[in-house]
Amino acid sequence: MIEALELFSNSLIASLLLSFAVALIGPLMLINRYNYLAASIAHGSYGGVGLAIYFGISILLGATLFALFLAFLLALITFKEKYPEILISLVWAVGMSIGIIFIDLAPGYKSDLLAYLFGDILLVPNLDLWFMVGVDLLLLAFVALYKNHLLALAYDREFATLRGLDVKFLHTLTLIMIALTVVMSIRSIGLILVIALFSIPPYIAEKFSRSYVGSMVLSGIITLIVMIAGLFISYTFNISASASIILFTAVLFLGVFKR
Amino acid sequence: MRLAISIKNLFFKYRNENVLEEINATICEGEYIALIGPNGGGKSTLLKLILGLLTPTQGEVLIFGKPPFKQRKLLGYMPQYVNFKLELPLLVKEVILQGRLERFKFRYTPNDFKALYEISQKLKIENLLDKKISTLSGGLRQRVLLARALIANPKILLLDEPTASVDMKAQREIYALLKTLPITKLVVSHDINLLLEGVDRVFYVNKRLVIHESLDIKISSPREGHFCQVELFEELKRSKNDRSS
Ligand SMILES: Nc1ncnc2c1ncn2[C@@H]1O[C@H](COP(=O)(O)OP(=O)(O)O)[C@@H](O)[C@H]1O
Ligand SMILES: [Mg+2]
Fold this sequence. Notes:
The complex is a heterodimer of chains A (259) and B (245).
Chain A: H1 2-31, H2 35-44, H3 46-55, H4 59-80, H5 85-105, H6 114-118, H7 126-155, H8 157-162, H9 167-184, H10 194-207, H11 212-237, H12 241-257
Helix pairs in contact in A: 1-7, 1-9, 1-10, 1-11, 2-4, 2-5, 2-9, 2-10, 3-4, 3-5, 4-9, 7-9, 10-11, 10-12, 11-12
Chain B: E1 3-13, E2 18-28, E3 32-36, H1 43-51, E4 58-63, E5 75-78, H2 92-97, H3 110-122, H4 138-150, E6 156-160, H5 168-180, E7 184-188, E8 201-206, E9 208-212, H6 229-244
Parallel strand pairs in B: 3-7, 3-8, 5-6, 6-7
Antiparallel strand pairs in B: 1-2, 1-4, 8-9
């Protein structure tokens, strides 16, 4: 049991840091209906992983820069286009294709690529934990400063504009924060599954919360519960941790809403 | 008297077809204007152009001599539809306080809360401040958004069908309250009662604007709490008979 706990220590810290991030950004994604945009950033970021491997730079750095680029691109698309869905899908697919092609072209040994798509929370490096701490702090500052503005914007965009709030700036900044959160979860949950984790706990939490802050806190708690439950399921049956976490989340979702 | 709003040769289209054509109007400070017209006539669009939320295809709007986006702090607005985004877990007080937000103001001050209590007392919603906005009826939600429009003490108030879903008694209360506010007011309404509550002029909007100056309806015996088209016609008949006899 002691050994198991040692193995788990980084994954428990990662779970805690991720839950904190979900609490801060998940409800915001939900109330703004940003899930599709976030999914596009997450999948598209695979391009950054591919480029980083090809050019031999740090994958975390490559993915971060690429995800930030995608955040700006998507911000631009959502300002300009009346029906942005097509272009959002294009960013999603092109990003992934860039990733696949550059990894194909990269010389020499290729590390386990599935690890970036599906993550492996049992093997989160210390550097990534520090990156997660950094993103959590940025998210905290972002939400603490802009909470009232973000809520006003989500509730009534026209009225927020009328009060002089910088709608474009807030929208872009939110996408940047989503991009950083996506990158911080590459190692633990992976680019593909992360969206489920960022969507479902806030969705459940919203139904049971009286206030927005309440829904943030509850999102974090639910995320922590599903992650730790998923970890133990994964350990017990020796199956993939990310998939266990997501499946457990789905079961919880069905359990809560089956009536 | 100072000019509050001036609209010069304004045209507007969303896509191909003009929604508004050749609108010219000047509104003085303190005037109370009723905006009437058929559905789809362009009333809401005109309000949004005055607010600067939409930009004219041609012509211009000036608020105290400047473009609307420079005068946002002077404008209070209540949108036509109040049942949006109900899934958001927002409290009534949070919605009302949004009316005090500013670009570089991130926290609400004690003054904001003082204004919150004052305006919610005026609108008789002081007991609802800690309720979730989604649990309120349409009529109460309308009052909440009216409070949000008023909380920053605007110089010009633009209300888009403020009493569409409130009952008769609440309607009269809201109009009575509006009457007491000594600011410039533009109110979209189909409600005939509004015409009796101190309105200075009536703007009829149906793509083009027709201005009815100096409204002078005198009601000899309005029944308490009730006045509708039938009474209006009775009044007209009576005054016609008076004149002919
Ligand atoms: N966002 C929009 N995009 C395109 N057309 C619109 C939009 N909003 C309103 N319209 C059209 O403009 C016209 C005027 O609408 P509106 O100003 O809402 O009228 P009213 O408030 O008098 O009912 C209508 O024909 C309506 O269909
Ligand atoms: Mg309208």
